[in-house]
Amino acid sequence: MKKILQGMALWLDYISYLVFSPFKFKKFPDKINKILVVEELLIGDLIVTLPTLRALKNKFNAQIDILVNPTMNEVAQSLPYANKVISDKESLENYDLGVILHKGSLETSKVLLKKAKYRIGCTKVGLLSPKGHFLNKKIRPNLKEQHKIEDNLDVVRSINVDTTDKTLGLVIDSKLDSKVKELFKENKLAKFKVVIHPGANYKSHEWPNERYKEIIEYLSKNYNASIIITGSKKDEELSNYICSQTKINILNLAAKTTIKEFFAVIKNSDLVLSVDTSASHVAAAFNKPIIVIFGGSNSNVWYPYTERRIVLHKGKSTENISIENVINSIDKILKNET
To answer: pLDDT digits over 195-253, tens only?
Structure first.
């Protein structure tokens, strides 16, 4: 029912645009020198904009600025193809093209109406989420289930941009990379390093905490692995609990790294085990082997975009994923790596 209602809302919005919008008659600019891309959501949402940013850069060879949530400045600074990261709408320059991915709010749309000569957007969003206003071109609703990368690329396909290259990638400063390698050396980590990321923005995405003990001990015993736990400040209690359940020496970095350092930790790991959250997309961006546990969210839309992945998804609860399921996935993915 939710999908049906979402589809109806998208079509109603699109038909309203076709019938009533006076902006649809504007001619596409002859020359695009400056582009603004709007993505005001979180880490994973920003990472999956990379193919869109690349496609725009390849098509127009223009300056590309990106408007982000103020808490996401560090993330956006690690994105290739973005010339400038902006979190204050009042400081925006004038642009030839504005691309709204998220959010298509009235506030953001009003700003782009003043600052961008030609405006397109936005991707598939929820039932009540704002869908972009004052657009010169609004994409025809695509209701099929597809990866969020494809949803983003659908926006720029509307202006005939080539979107065949869908690879990811993040930029890490060499000094930061060296710092993380030195941290691993100081803590005498083994050659094989596994990042476990147990926390998520939604509790429903998290795997039962007590199950990590057997996974950690299995990795240590069977693969001589060093274990690194990552997470934000809100994940600190969860990470401390997991570490307290085993005598295995764990490098607990939850709440101890910046976002860029977190990226560098994953870049220098050999395997990532994560619930459905940002870590899985960071791992995909560095093409690291990743096992990701899904619960109620849609794994067809948000799976890590790499061939080196195993997605575990059984129903709407992560509790349906057993310890044996994870251990079998570890053996399978590592067998494929050798």
So the answer is: 999 999 888 899 999 999 999 999 999 999 999 999 999 999 999 999 999 999 999 99
Distant-in-sequence contacts of 308-313, Cβ < 8 A, 24+ apart: 308/333, 308/336, 308/337, 309/284
Residue position matching structure tokens 């009533």: 20
**Three-class secondary structure of residue 283 per DSSP:** helix
* Interatomic CA distance for residues 159 and 161, integer angstroms: 6
Extract the tokens encoding 310. 């195993």
In the DSSP assignment, the letter for residue 104 is B
**pTM of the predicted protein model:** 0.94
Q: What is the CATH number of domain 174-337?
A: 3.40.50.2000
- Is the previous residue joined to 122 through a cis bond, with omega within 30 degrees of 0? yes
CB 190 within 8 A of CB 266: no
Domain boundaries, the chain: 2-157, 174-337
CATH code linked to domain 2-157: 3.40.50.2000
Q: Is the peptide bond before 314 cis (omega within 30 degrees of 0)?
A: no
Report yes or no: 250 and 269 within 8 Å, Cβ to Cβ.
no
